[in-house]
UniProtKB/TrEMBL annotation:
<comment type="similarity">
    <text>Belongs to the bacterial ribosomal protein bL33 family.</text>
</comment>
<dbReference type="GO" id="GO:0003735">
    <property type="term" value="F:structural constituent of ribosome"/>
</dbReference>
<dbReference type="Pfam" id="PF00471">
    <property type="entry name" value="Ribosomal_L33"/>
</dbReference>
<dbReference type="InterPro" id="IPR038584">
    <property type="entry name" value="Ribosomal_bL33_sf"/>
</dbReference>
<dbReference type="GO" id="GO:0006412">
    <property type="term" value="P:translation"/>
</dbReference>
<dbReference type="GO" id="GO:0005737">
    <property type="term" value="C:cytoplasm"/>
</dbReference>
<protein>
    <recommendedName>
        <fullName>Large ribosomal subunit protein bL33c</fullName>
    </recommendedName>
</protein>
<dbReference type="GO" id="GO:0005840">
    <property type="term" value="C:ribosome"/>
</dbReference>
<keyword id="KW-0687">Ribonucleoprotein</keyword>
<dbReference type="InterPro" id="IPR018264">
    <property type="entry name" value="Ribosomal_bL33_CS"/>
</dbReference>
<dbReference type="InterPro" id="IPR011332">
    <property type="entry name" value="Ribosomal_zn-bd"/>
</dbReference>
<keyword id="KW-0689">Ribosomal protein</keyword>
<dbReference type="GO" id="GO:1990904">
    <property type="term" value="C:ribonucleoprotein complex"/>
</dbReference>
<keyword id="KW-0496">Mitochondrion</keyword>
<dbReference type="InterPro" id="IPR001705">
    <property type="entry name" value="Ribosomal_bL33"/>
</dbReference>
């Protein structure tokens, strides 16, 4: 089966604070969210403010590869 050329694709968003700290002692894991984006409207990497349950605050979550 060929890959689909749909405009809407699923992306993973990962907490940049947890990753940058290397999962420090206060943080017990890495927060990840799954969302969709329109490939034609946002060709670049997606970054959103989301709540990180490991940092206990709102942080920037950036798009990562699957």
């Amino acid at each position: 089966m060929a890959k689909s050329k749909d405009a809407r694709i699923r992306v993973l968003l990962e907490c940049t604070s947890c990753v940058r700290d290397g999962v420090n002692k206060e943080s017990t894991g890495i927060s990840r969210y799954i969302t969709e984006k329109n490939r034609h409207n946002t060709p670049g990497r997606l970054e959103l403010q989301k709540f990180c349950p490991y940092c206990y605050k709102h942080t920037i979550h950036g798009e990562i590869k699957k």
